[in-house]
């Protein structure tokens, strides 16, 4: 009797609408799975078209091309003698569903539509798909002719069913269904399903990986069973980085773990597992067995195929392992670096340009690019032919081999210190030393000529000359003069990004990197259309606190000693005149709040869903040891005033790597007005009333 089943799951770096590339990666994963003896292969959610197609799901072309890819898979000898489980959109009776298509030997066994759709945060699946609300119900799906010609089938089962092979029973979940309170695996497990599969499109958030692992392990801890999870990986065309972590769990314990961050486009996990372990585990859980005796049965699709061999007593099976989690600093080092690599190679640009100020934020961005260069060199050293081919295309050299991260950095990364009369020599030296240590091509320039020209035009037209406040100017004049410097830096950044390689006799252009952190964006502490306006921003979803910890990580792990002085210096924009040659302006003084406070405000506003009054109520307890209620009220009011005044800046925020659940990104994640009544009169009156009651 067969008892040892060999199954495969994978993490694929799919790209939205890249049907040719997606097909090639699916084929590669199937080939690896078969070569390692797997009889079942699971892929990520919507892997045929790529998860991030967004409104392209409305287009009939997306459905057509998905079926064309499916036909290629069905007719290929590469997919014979292995159950293949792939994801694609399917239109059934004029309703669009997010589906798994499960097939074997040129026959479709089942099309299983998604039951619980992800519709929070970055996800909008209800915009494009409809959930399948007919529990344990199966209908006939009439196949398009392109598929009929391959399979010889006119109709196939479509709905909420499970597969019954000759040796076991498999049931599918799709991404969000694992996170739902009434996950299908609960009832399926009670009905005798022994292998649960989950195809995901789950993105990276700092400190989130353990949640996903815990959910998978807990899915089988109470009910027994084998749980197989596949996930997308990489940047498939927007702000998200899908972080792999394919895994296989048995009876609540992990037996196979995939990488969370890597430059491998195709990663396959294969495990051999003993079905008798599941059966004996379940046998002694009496509460589970009592519930199973009353469960409504699932429709079963019979499959004349086995995942095991008849004589497999001596076949070794996988043992439990301890999951290794990355620290948040490692996550920042690896996740945004992999995202940048995908963006660089897929945009077909020749590298990056970063305005490097000598402060923590731009230095952290530079360190992420350096980390990317390290990952590229390591991948090439480990024999990754895809990464080598991409690196050669980027540097336009068919014989090039990236071996030294600093040398590769010199080719693809340009840093630029843009000094003004308000810049200190300290920041100039810090930027130069960091550039030397990471190997970037570094430029020093001065923007004073351009600033004076712009201000001179204004003065010539109006007859007035604005002054900084230290010279007697008003706050309006002071802010306008700061903004002119910041915006000129943006113009120069794009000019140098387009032409720097031209001056060096090299082809191509550079992507401009921004370096505003998530806290500054939340507060609006940035000039609209300054050098925070860029092509992409790898740190735009990361807090100042986490960036400081990341800088310390780089000092210790990358031996970047230049970062020590950057860490110890107070954050400053250096847009106001120096006092006796020293910086007098600091970020926290300008903002009227600390970065630590900003992180707390951000989490309460977004994650805790707190408006001004609720935030005040929470903070009078959180800060009772350090602030009076009246001081808390003043801080909360100041934050909401500044947040609402500056919210319009979020509409033009540079696309940023999504890493925090309190991101203020206005594009998809944090949908708010950008024209507020900044007086917040009703809300603030409620706070004042409570303060008076507490005094």
TrEMBL record:
Keywords: ATP-binding, Ligase, NAD, Nucleotide-binding. It is an enzyme of class 6 (ligase). Residues 5-275 form the CN hydrolase domain. One of its GO terms (biological process) is 'de novo' NAD+ biosynthetic process from L-tryptophan. One of its GO terms (molecular function) is ATP binding. It comes from the Eukaryota. The keyword Protein biosynthesis does not apply. Pathway: Cofactor biosynthesis; NAD(+) biosynthesis; NAD(+) from deamido-NAD(+) (L-Gln route): step 1/1. Its EC number is 6.3.5.1. SUPFAM superfamilies: Adenine nucleotide alpha hydrolases-like, Carbon-nitrogen hydrolase. CDD domains: GAT_Gln-NAD-synth, NAD_synthase. One of its GO terms (cellular component) is cytosol. PROSITE patterns: CN_HYDROLASE (PS50263). In the C-terminal section; belongs to the NAD synthetase family. PANTHER family: GLUTAMINE-DEPENDENT NAD(+) SYNTHETASE (PTHR23090:SF9), NH 3 /GLUTAMINE-DEPENDENT NAD + SYNTHETASE (PTHR23090). Homohexamer. HAMAP family: NadE_glutamine_dep. This is Glutamine-dependent NAD(+) synthetase. It comes from Smutsornis africanus.
